[in-house]
Amino acid sequence: MDRVRSKRTVASRRPRVQRRGKVWGGIDLGGTKIEAVVIDGHGKPIGHARHPTPTQGEPAEVVREMYGALEEAVRTAGLRLTRLGGVGVGAPGAVDANAGTLARVSNVGRGWTAPFPLAGSLSELTRGAVVLGNDVQVAVAAEYRLGAGRPYRSVLGVWWGTGVGGGLVLDGVPWRGRGAAGEIGHMVVKPGGARCGCGRRGCMEAYAGRGNLEREARKAEEKGEKTHLFELMRKKQRTRLTSSIWKKALDEEDPLATKLIERAVHMLGVGLASAINLLDVEAVILGGGLGSRLGAEYAGRIHEAMSPHVFMTERQPPVLVAELGELSGAIGAALLVEPDVT
């Protein structure tokens, strides 16, 4: 299927958007934070807000917090909700864009398994159209069109945060397979290895996802290993080990943080190299909370960790940090309702 035809097919399935103004809302639903933006016709954020994701919230509570973040973003843009031409949401888990439901979410609130009508619930609050997409896929699409992926035709996006997600653009066309393509975090990097949040063993996410990193850090501290991670967490009045806390601990050469992140980098390198051997993309884009926070230095380390496992070493692709930073997901979500932004 060519690119133009593919766009028409996707557009024909998208809920009808009432174009009330040349601005659009985007929400990135993450395990620790909710990012909301308002973008203009060039994809530039003109309003932004960040709220913590409810740690124990049921789906309805999470939706209310999403709405609160969007309201604040609209206010910072000096606008009213009625000006929005629609709202896009990038979410983890099993997204059914046609039905507007989200299921099998493990890292948000208390998590939920059964499909929840997220689009409809949020639409009742915004009184406008809401479109759902996979969080990493929309973030990668934003980077491909507006960020680090612009010079390339084929890219692999890796979003290193609470979990490890992925997204693909192949020869200019987003590749979603049957709906679950890009789940690089669940590539097995060590058969029979550490248990992942998905219930399986040896997944990349089991070693690199921030949620699993925190669990390992807590176990190690209980066993007497020295670390300042949780002291930093208390000083910042956080309930979780956020990306900024990991960055601070690494800058201070905390031994446990260093050990766990080095293992994560190694496993990311193993998994990414296998994906490169299969797909031969032109570039890898590193995003997500940890990916963006740790930046170019760790992108370089991941590139080095890939090298021993890449088959065509003479054309190993670069690992680039997402140019849109932590707003990639929210901007990409907004592009779901306004795909013609240039």
Descriptive overview:
This protein is an alpha/beta fold and 342 residues long. It has 2 domains: 3-140 and 327-335, ATPase, nucleotide binding domain (Nucleotidyltransferase, domain 5, 2-Layer Sandwich); 152-323, 2-Layer Sandwich (Nucleotidyltransferase, domain 5). The protein has 11 helices and 12 strands. It has helices spanning 3-13, 59-76, 118-126, 135-146, 204-208, 210-222, 229-235, 243-251, 255-279, 288-306, 328-335, and strands spanning 23-29, 33-39, 45-52, 84-91, 94-96, 101-103, 130-134, 155-160, 164-170, 173-175, 283-287, 319-321. Strands 3-2-1-4-7 form a 5-stranded mixed beta sheet. A hairpin with a 2-residue loop joins strand 9 and strand 10. The protein is globular and about 50 Å long. The chain starts with a helix and ends in a 7-residue tail after the last helix. Mean pLDDT is 90; it is low at 1-19.
Helix content: 25-40%
Q: What's the structural domain tally?
A: 2
Series of secondary-structure elements, N-terminal to C-terminal: HEEEHEEEHEHEEEHHHHHEHEH
Output the CATH homologous superfamily of the largest domain: ATPase, nucleotide binding domain
Mean pLDDT: 90
**Major β-sheet annotation:** 5 strands, mixed
Write the CATH architecture name of the largest domain.
2-Layer Sandwich
Quaternary assembly = single chain
**Quick one: overall form?**
globular
- Continuous helix count: 11
Q: Which class of the largest domain in CATH terms? A: Alpha Beta
Tell me the β content: 15-25%
Structural class: alpha/beta
Unreliable stretches (pLDDT < 50, length at least 5) are 1-19
Give me the count of strands. 12
Distance between the first and last residues' Cα: 23 Å
Radius of gyration from CA coordinates: 19 Å
InterPro entries: ATPase_NBD, ROK
Protein name: Glucokinase
Family: Belongs to the ROK (NagC/XylR) family.
Organism: Myxococcus fulvus
